[in-house]
Design a protein that fits this description.
72% helix, 4 helices, 156 residues
Length: 156
Amino acid sequence: MRPRLLTDEMILTAIRDLAARGRVTGTALRALLLQRYGAKGSVGRVYRHLQAAAARRVALPVREPPLAADPQTLQEARARAALAEERERVHQARWAREIDALRARLAEADHSSREVAALRLRVAQLQGALDVAREGLRTLESTRPAAAPPRPFSPT
């Protein structure tokens, strides 16, 4: 086991300094440790200290808005919520249709690409057969004795 390059106090000091600046993340903490001390510390150890520091912090109480106090405000909030749910439903339906259309296009493109590949193979086969036929024709022409030039056609 390697000796520790960072003490617990070094890690806790870095956590306090980051907390004073804002949100503390493990990545930011390890970057600060590397910058200050030339070592990042082990991931498990650094995150254990980070979790312990977060547990020690006191969470601020969340204040609920007084919706139930005013029936008109409550009714308006419910109407806005219903409208938001309807919009979300329409949004989800639209994107579901879009995804289905894209999947259909992809399947069609996949089918077309298979057809293209099959046609390319057939063209290559036919090209090979044509090359063989041409070679056979050249062989026949080279072995055939020279014939007299064809006579012109004269209707009698």
